[in-house]
Amino acid sequence: MSQGDKDEDQHNQRKAGNRNVERTLASAGAGWEHVVHVNSYHVGGLPPEVNDVMVRLFRHYMPNHAPIWTQVGVAALGLPTMRIEIRFTAIVP
């Protein structure tokens, strides 16, 4: 897999993850505005491109606030094809 393919795959995984979070939040009667903390785990470290994509996605989904965000570079995740894992914490009023 070329670097461009890897980058596109990671971007697609991030977008799919955010859509999943949106559905989960909605099922709890919450929205992106209730997210207060994000942990993201990235296979292969944290090159600037990874940060740039994450920031763009967060600004898209959370334009009016910036939750606490912790990024961690990891050697591997649960499955060999996984490139990113994101954990969101929301407080529902």
If you had to describe this structure to a student in words, what would you say it looks like?
This protein has 93 residues and is an alpha+beta fold. 42% of the residues lie in helices and 25% in strands. It is built from two helices and three strands. Strands 2-1-3 form a three-stranded mixed sheet, covered by helices on one side. β1, α2 and β2 form a beta-alpha-beta unit. α1 runs parallel beside α2. The longest helix is centred in the N-terminal third of the chain and has 25 residues. The radius of gyration is 13 Å and the shape is globular. The mean pLDDT is 87.
Element layout with pairings:
Elements: H1 3-27, E1 35-43, H2 48-61, E2 68-74, E3 84-90
Parallel strand pairs: 1-2
Antiparallel strand pairs: 1-3
Helix pairs in contact: 1-2
